[in-house]
Amino acid sequence: MALALTLSAPAARAALPEPYNLIYGAIEMDGHWVTAADTTVTVEARRLPTGATIASYRMGSQASASNYYALKIRLESPAPDDIMQAAETGTTLYLTVLKGTMVKNQLEYDMGERGAVKRLDFGNIDTDHDGLPDGWEQAYLFGLQSGAGDDPDHDGVSNLDEYRLGTNPSRADGRHPADLNQDWVISVPELAAYYGAWKKGQAWTIAPTNITLEYVTCATYLWEQGGYYKQDLTVTNAAPLWWITTPAPANAAMIASLDAPVMAKELASDGPLNAVSSDGPLSVVTLGSVLYRAGQPISLTNRVSVTTGLRTYAVEQFVPPGWTLVSVGNGVWDSTNSKAKWGPFFDRVSRDLVLTVLPPPGANGLQSMPGAAAYDGHRIAVAGVRIVADAPSLTARMVLKPNGHATRWVLEAVPGGSYALEASSDLQKWESVSQAPADEQGRAELADPDPTAAVTRFYRARLVQP
User: Of 451, 370, 447, 461, nearest to 418 (Cα)?
Assistant: First the structure.
């Protein structure tokens, strides 16, 4: 890349200030040379690494500088009212490159004699090869000791992401990853891109790159409340719940109210069911058979019950690898993560979310199909069916073991099914003596309430309700 610079020092005239120092040079940023067309790039001179600016140059603002930056710094004794706009010979200044408001690099410069002209180029020098330019590490971390994955301010954003976002790694100021332009407000385009990437399982540019239910429902909650937010570590020291809503500035556009009809149309869903009470504002129970047969469709229903106290929610359900999607109701299929996804829902009503899948030929054994749900950034447990089993292997899975006494038993079986303990005195006639469901680990405790009914007693377990 050819760079040219034509600069002339001002002629000395009586009663005029002493000549300024001129610092100029080229800027390499993110693998490219910055040109005069990159007008969002500025170079600032500061007394301290993060202090006030005493001089600045915006790329393209001086035609004669071409693709260089040209920073003029006064050294004469200034008047008291503008003393912060000058420097003294022998002092150290910090020259800082910014793209918009993002700090991209910083170098130290020792001020020389009056009228000095110095070339100082900026490049992405990375001595320790951690992806962080040395100048940026020196500016914020005061050395190269901290790594790319470290989080010295404990705001949930790594040093590498802080560098990419232009935020301060020494101050807890992490923005929500949906806030792409990092302006502390989540707009409709940002939210639509964020939940669109969540639905499709697309990698996001800001960690967590695989968007979670908590993060997407936190983003929708913040937008639904007006879009403006802040980070509050007194609420919690963990993301995403440390992002809370904040009032919009007095002169801010009413983003939420203006775009709400558009968003409502985009997120339109089927009609509501009657709400069912729950211990919290949202409960989800997966209903359906725990049995499947290879080559035959199986359907599970996530019954969502909403009471009060939430703004938005979303639901996911995992599908075993190799199984084929038949239908996902009013949801979408994330083929990257083998999940069915529903939402985000803004209407705060209950509904049934039905998933139908086809086990492949030869499928057998236990298969995991857990559900997950979150509202307003809060993740909740999903009850009901989590594991399904093929019918032929079900019997082989049932193991009845004594539980400290001959009339008390522990059954190891398929989770979610209901099982009966049966007793017989002759191995011909059997009667049910107790019944219990298996928990999520497939464990059920069964007992004979009247073990003295016969001198000889035989026991067996049987599946009553899958």
Answer: 461
Amino acid at 313: Y
* Separation between Cα atoms, residue 57 and residue 291, nearest integer Å: 70
Asked, for residue 14, whether it belongs to a domain, the answer is: no
Two tokens, residue 188? 């409709």
What is the block-wise mean pLDDT of the chain (466 residues), using blocks of 10 residues?
41 51 86 90 88 90 90 65 54 88 85 77 82 81 86 81 77 83 91 95 88 96 94 84 88 45 36 40 92 92 92 96 93 95 94 96 88 95 88 69 77 81 86 86 83 74 78
Q: What gap in Å lies between CA 319 and CA 360, rounded to an integer?
A: 12
Please say whether the dihedral angle defined by the alpha carbons of residues 127, 131, 136 and 140, taken in this order, is positive or negative. negative
pLDDT of residue 88: 62
- Same-domain check for residues 338 and 261: no
**Would you state the pLDDT for residue 269?**
34
Q: What is the reported pLDDT for 402?
A: 80
Q: What is the pLDDT of residue 393?
A: 66
CA nearest to 263, candidates 224, 227, 226: 224
Q: Are 118 and 196 members of one domain? A: no
Element (H, E) at 255: helix 255-266
Structure tokens at 330: 């009013």
Exposure string over 70-87, b if 16+ CB within 10 A, otherwise e = bbbbbbeeeeeeeeeebb
315: left (phi over 0), alpha (psi -120 to 50) or beta: beta
User: 165 lies in a domain?
Assistant: no
Structure tokens at 159: 């040093």
> Is residue 83 a contact partner of residue 71, using CB atoms and an 8 Å limit?
no
CB atoms within 10 A of CB 430: 16
Residue 87 φ/ψ, nearest 5 degrees: -130, 170
CATH number for 353: 2.60.40.290
Q: Which amino acid is at 41?
A: V
The residue assigned the tokens 């140059």 is 57
CA distance 363 to 296: 10
pLDDT attached to residue 142? 78
**Looking at the structure, do residues 452 and 433 belong to the same domain, yes or no?**
yes
Task: Please state the pTM of the whole predicted model.
Answer: 0.58
405: tokens are: 């006494």
Give the separation between CA 298 and CA 259, rounded to whole angstroms. Answer: 40
Encoded tokens for 42:
């500025």
Domain that holds residue 452: 398-465
Residue for token pair 């405790």: 445
**Structural domain contains residue 435:** yes
